[in-house]
Design goal:
The protein has one domain: Rossmann fold, CATH 3.40.50.150. It is 34% helix and 20% strand. It has 9 helices and 10 strands. Strand 6, helix 7 and strand 7 form a beta-alpha-beta unit. Helix 1 packs across helix 3 and helix 1 packs antiparallel against helix 9. The chain is globular. The model has no long low-confidence stretch (mean pLDDT 96). The structure holds S-adenosylmethionine.
């Protein structure tokens, strides 16, 4: 386990993932019923963009560093407000990872369960979450999250699957975990984050998602450079099962807005259904 997210926090891929995550959690709160948030690969929760690791790569400059302090876009407004709330005015120093973002958005009666395997990152995560009684941190293999934690007591849940993709089999592990999750809780909202290097490398993954048996599955992608170079991270995507309404409509306007802010030349986006919601045939005589 070499991957440490502190080197990459706030990069353009984090921006897409976290803006959409934030939005999904807000939209799910249109109903009052409690929500369980589950994170299979949680990281440390909170990042210092002025720290040694972030300074070594400088990746955040072409991510959150390019975004304005605020925006009217539904996709970006609340996300940017959360980032701003962590920092003094005009400063971009602290950046919320998925656990911190979820913690800030969720209500008093919602719950969070976070898995992180790396011993050092787990200790940091636990420390960062220590004041919040709604949060349970597990030092365990995130690939077991479906078996271990689903179904949740809450009828509504969002599972983020966000592995480091250091190994080739993580694509199939992500699909297996998704299948395990919907097998145990059909209505669960699941988001798999994935890297886009060369688009053609993803064919098998798309196929597996399309055959996963999910009730419906939305694909949202954004690349900041042409997606044709297997050696570099050019973009990222989210495969979202059971997306809350009206996420699709918001992404239709939000993705082009985000692209304008993040494009490095030759970027693009895509939004389509890999599994469409079945259209119910009209009842005869109705
Ligand atoms: N979700 C985080 C966020 O958005 O802020 C970032 C997560 S980072 C991409 C992936 C994390 O997964 C790393 O912190 C790594 O230590 C952890 N990890 C790697 N393999 C794991 C496994 N099998 N189970 C749980 N965590 C794992």
């Amino acid at each position: 386990m070499n991957y440490r997210h502190a080197y990459h926090a706030g990069n353009f891929a984090d921006v897409l993932k976290h803006a959409v995550l934030q939005r999904m959690l807000v939209l799910m709160q249109r109903k009052e019923a409690p929500i369980a948030y589950l994170d299979s690969h949680a990281g440390v929760g909170l990042y210092d963009l002025h720290g040694v690791e972030a300074g070594k790569t400088g990746e955040w400059h072409s991510g959150i560093g390019r975004l304005p302090a605020q925006s009217n876009s539904p996709l970006l407004a609340d996300y940017l407000a959360q980032v701003a709330a962590l920092n003094s005015e005009g400063e971009r120093r602290y950046y919320p990872g998925s656990p911190e973002l979820a913690r800030r958005v969720l209500r008093e009666y919602d719950s969070l369960q976070l898995c992180e395997k790396h011993p050092q990152d787990f200790a940091l995560l636990k420390d960062n979450m220590r004041h919040d009684e709604r949060v349970i941190c597990h030092q365990r293999d995130g690939w077991q999250i479906g078996k271990a934690l689903l179904p949740t007591e809450e009828k509504r849940a969002l599972l983020l699957i966000d592995p480091p993709f250091e190994a080739e089999d993580e694509f199939s592990q992500a699909v297996n975990t998704l299948q395990e999750a919907i097998g145990r809780m059909r209505q669960v909202v699941v988001a798999i984050w994935y890297p886009i290097k060369a688009e053609k490398q993803l064919k098998g993954f798309y196929q597996a998602l399309a055959n996963s048996g999910a009730p419906k599955l939305l694909r949202a992608e954004l690349w900041v450079r042409p997606a044709d170079n297997a050696a570099s991270l050019n973009g990222s995507g989210l495969a979202i099962v059971n997306p809350p309404w009206p996420l699709e409509e918001e992404l239709r306007t939000g993705l082009p807005e985000l692209l304008k802010l993040l494009d490095q030349g030759g970027g693009g986006y895509r939004l389509d259904w890999l599994i469409e919601e079945p259209v119910l045939a009209p009842t005869p005589g109705a």
